[in-house]
Amino acid sequence: MGWIRDYGLYLAWLVALIATGGSLYFSEMAGFIPCELCWYQRILMYPLAVILGVASYRDDRSVVLYSLPLSLSGVALSAFHYLLQKVPGMAGLSPCKEGIPCSGQYINWLGFITIPFLAFVAFVLISLLLAAARKGSD
């Protein structure tokens, strides 16, 4: 598993790029209008694609200290968003009062994979890869 430590920063960047591209595909190509929580998740993901790209190029593992708070915040936010979609009792907690409802599900693959679920997986992967990359620099 030493290769994960060696390439964790690069892999985290790839995950951020794929997640950014996926969110742009869903909104620009598929025509899915993002809800308010989707916008906040984008605010956390898009800078990671740039920051981790520069850090990967420079092999700057100190970026973990700046990127990990963004990815962990994304984990929490996307988990909350997913719960809003899947747990009916949480619908009253939704911050989306106007426009697109946060509980809406544009996709529901295999009965559980929604856009917030995909964001959650991406943020968790980025967080784990950053933690592994940080350990590689110690």
TrEMBL record:
<feature type="transmembrane region" description="Helical">
    <location>
        <begin position="64"/>
        <end position="84"/>
    </location>
</feature>
<keyword id="KW-0472">Membrane</keyword>
<keyword id="KW-1015">Disulfide bond</keyword>
<keyword id="KW-0249">Electron transport</keyword>
<dbReference type="InterPro" id="IPR003752">
    <property type="entry name" value="DiS_bond_form_DsbB/BdbC"/>
</dbReference>
<dbReference type="GO" id="GO:0006457">
    <property type="term" value="P:protein folding"/>
</dbReference>
<dbReference type="InterPro" id="IPR023380">
    <property type="entry name" value="DsbB-like_sf"/>
</dbReference>
<keyword id="KW-0143">Chaperone</keyword>
<feature type="transmembrane region" description="Helical">
    <location>
        <begin position="39"/>
        <end position="57"/>
    </location>
</feature>
<dbReference type="GO" id="GO:0015035">
    <property type="term" value="F:protein-disulfide reductase activity"/>
</dbReference>
<feature type="transmembrane region" description="Helical">
    <location>
        <begin position="109"/>
        <end position="133"/>
    </location>
</feature>
<dbReference type="InterPro" id="IPR012187">
    <property type="entry name" value="Disulphide_bond_form_BdbC"/>
</dbReference>
<keyword id="KW-0813">Transport</keyword>
<protein>
    <submittedName>
        <fullName>Disulfide bond formation protein DsbB</fullName>
    </submittedName>
</protein>
<comment type="similarity">
    <text>Belongs to the DsbB family. BdbC subfamily.</text>
</comment>
<keyword id="KW-1133">Transmembrane helix</keyword>
<keyword id="KW-0560">Oxidoreductase</keyword>
<keyword id="KW-0676">Redox-active center</keyword>
<keyword id="KW-0812">Transmembrane</keyword>
<dbReference type="GO" id="GO:0016020">
    <property type="term" value="C:membrane"/>
</dbReference>
<feature type="transmembrane region" description="Helical">
    <location>
        <begin position="7"/>
        <end position="27"/>
    </location>
</feature>
<dbReference type="Pfam" id="PF02600">
    <property type="entry name" value="DsbB"/>
</dbReference>
